[in-house]
Amino acid sequence: MRLSTRYPFKLILSVAVAWSVVSTGFVLAASLGDGHLKRNGAPMASQPQGEPDPDLLPLWAAFAGKASGRVSVTWSHLWGTPKAVYGTLSNPLVMSELSARQFLSTHAALLKLEPSLPGFTLVSSRDTPMGQIYAFAQAVDGVPVYGGELKVHFDRQGRVVGLMNTAVPSVKLGSVAPSVMAEQAVEAARGQMPPGLVDEEAADLPGPSTKLVIYAETGTPTLAWEIIVHTPGPTWQVFVHAHTGKVLAPAKDLNRYVTGRGQVFRVNAIVATQNNGLRDNKDGASAVPSTAYSSVDLQGLEGTGLLDGTYASSKASKRRVSSASQTFVFDRSSNGFSETMGYYFLDYAQRYIQSLGFSTVNNRQQIFSVDRYNKDNSFYQSSTKNITYGIGGVDDAEDADVIWHEYGHSILDNQVPGYGTSLEADSIGEGFGDYLAGTLGAQLSGGFQDACLAEWDATSYTSTIPPCLRRLDGTKHYPEAIVGEVHDDGEIWSAALWQIRGAIGATKADTVILQHHFLLTPDTSFNQAANALLSAAKGLGFSSAEKNAIKSILGNRGFTITVE
Known about the structure:
Number of strands: 22
Helix content: 25-40%
Strand order of the largest sheet: 6-7-11-10-9-8
Distance between the termini: 45 Å
């Protein structure tokens, strides 16, 4: 099998005007027009790039004039309001929900919101190495606005350094009582899905979930049913008009995939033995020498005799292994080996994240399965928060790079709920998952092939030496390397992160990369993420040399940097 499918995409970008107002010391990021990606002759929407509502420019000038130094802004393509703003945006304040609300209220007109912020409820308050983040979810008459959120990021001195806005302005619906019932909406949703879905009950899957929301992705706020349907593979999301029964957007697969097809191995069998010639041989124990295995401590077990612990659990697997003595020693011919790999390396990743100072990033029990999906692919399900590791080819959970890549999706979903609503955001997510696998794997590999990902999994579908799912040391440049496939385009981002790691060291790179996620929006672009990354470096107190190195690497990759 191929590593990932490449299509003959052609990128057509029209560059719109970039504004610069020198007197107030701010620069509005260059805006890309409505370009298109062509797939086999059919148009495919590129990353939507917004421009400011002209009526807001005086308010923006006043806002930026109060900032200390230059600020970076990305605009909503639907509303013309600021979507993400980075810089020193206020004087020191007392870090609190009240201060965050007062900051938002002061600038409500710029966001096209009422000063009292009706319907906005605090949903999270997080402490990070850079400061405190307050997130407010939007609702109208008790109905949540899908994706509607305001986030205020304070630095350690209490200054606002980030404003993220995905709120929907001027929502007026009249009635929030649906005319179409949930059961009717489910049937309409099923009509949008590919044929041949397995019955949920027969497949031991949860039934469809239904939730009434206000959906505004079309530009018109609409009362809608959000329908989630689980299958053994994709998890489908469909929005159905709650008054007409019309489907508002094509069915979307919510799962975040790694496009591989796939005691513990230190990373994987090839890295552990430094032998690129190993092959799967249908899960045969004799295919891998005993020297590939390492004895490890399984921390945090609950003591139930199952692989359930503080940060990981294999409870989604159908046939689980058990041990009254908490001894889980299997070779690769048993699914118990994959369970043990999954538990150990998910637990390892979370403990490392916490060692960097992030006590609230995906700090939960990550549930996973190793025997539910017969194809050579793995995915994270945002609806259930579970990870499924496939068993086609090399069992995916035999390769820690695949384990960690999927955990990367779980991390991003935790830091930026609903993340991945645009092509570039999805690409950044894939790139981060690859980077996470690379930086964690480098801690255990002895320096062997660190830029080559998932060598063991890749033996099922490539004959190259070394067999790599993807690499972290590519030379792709934005935007001309964009092809419209998220794993391919993610290599632009992962290579930039890998370069930054080489320039400033693993610990600082991993810290700033995790920190900058808090400054992203679900539909973030490459340029927005690049500015967020540099803003996070500033907020973490990185040296001038470190910030300049990050800026140079991002600039050389083709990203537009507008923040200081």
